[in-house]
């Protein structure tokens, strides 16, 4: 059997992981959800969720991947716990599910890049979104986006994913940075910053009453589950992606340091995107807070239509969004491709094409009707992601246990105390946080 692939360099893994994390979640969802859920107040809750729950959970996924050097499903078996294979199956399934509609939105982005060149959406941005976001147009662009994803993944871990993300990730950061500076110079931007960055702490309340079952009320009942799921989605957790990427990493690399890099960059790009998008809306007098799938597209298209040099800005902006979406989508396809390559040793390009085709098929309903897309997204957020992350956390904390600490500390100069603290956090606070998220999510879904 041939040698399993690995990253060529340490930076290769970090950039690929950052590329996976930084995506549509940061640019398409985060600024708008932040507006919808109360501006900076949501930002505070989100950051607590990302650092307090997302970071320890990412370390758990890294440990599963690097310890086993296998795909997200095989990993659990190889570590000696066949009964926990369902966690991997759920993760891979969730990745498959999410990529199906992620790619549809990726197709919209491609469309809007083209539309910026020709000025197609300038006359009536809302009507344009209605035209291109559903139906055969959306289907064709969904296919095109998927072909791009397959082409990169077909190239392999080192020559495909690593080379691509080495180029993509720095471009995202630099271009968004330039855009943020440019927006800052526009008249009328300043209320956007205070909206985005000054929290209303009175919003941060949650009360529980027992009657006799516990039920929750207060503004946090919506904010917490959304913030936690958004942190999972945004950090690419619960989909086998970080397990898979870490499975190509050597023992000499500090997982701890790498996870911090990913969380910092992911949060920074989300905030940077907010610093571009939210003040831009204020500049154009567009009401933030009207969320929904079309928010980014309709409101930004409206802004670009009215700005001088709107075409150039539009191409550049949607270009960054496209790069970010691609570098995330490849990690989702790699989850399933890695499973197939590990198990059947078949040829990577053919596998990538076949699985890309299946994912394309699953995305057809979302491409034809945005109501389906919303439904796919809601199910992923409220149920699949938290359950899947919870599975990894319980496995690492309570089943695998101590050996996880040894694996975490390999290649790092940290003392055992840090490792044990992490393990106990995972076992207690982090697990409880996810359980609370699920309870609140279920309460809002069904009651
Ligand atoms: N993290 C990506 C984003 O924020 C989405 C993603 C989820 C990518 C899961 C890979 C795995 O857009
Ligand atoms: Na993200």
UniProtKB/TrEMBL annotation:
Membrane spanning stretches: 12-31, 43-64, 84-104, 139-157, 169-189, 223-248, 260-282, 288-305, 312-339, 351-376, 383-401, 421-447
Cell compartment(s), UniProt: Membrane
GO cellular component entries: membrane
CDD domains registered for this protein in UniProt: SLC6sbd_Tyt1-Like (cd10336)
Topology relative to the membrane: Multi-pass membrane protein
A Pfam family it matches: SNF
PROSITE patterns reported in the protein's UniProt record: NA_NEUROTRAN_SYMP_3
InterPro entries xref list: Na/ntran_symport, SNS_sf, YocR/YhdH-like
Signal sequence segment: none
Record keywords: Membrane, Transmembrane, Transmembrane helix, Transport
Name assigned to this protein: Neurotransmitter:Na+ symporter, NSS family
Species for this entry: Halobellus limi
Phylogenetic lineage: Archaea, Methanobacteriati, Methanobacteriota, Stenosarchaea group, Halobacteria
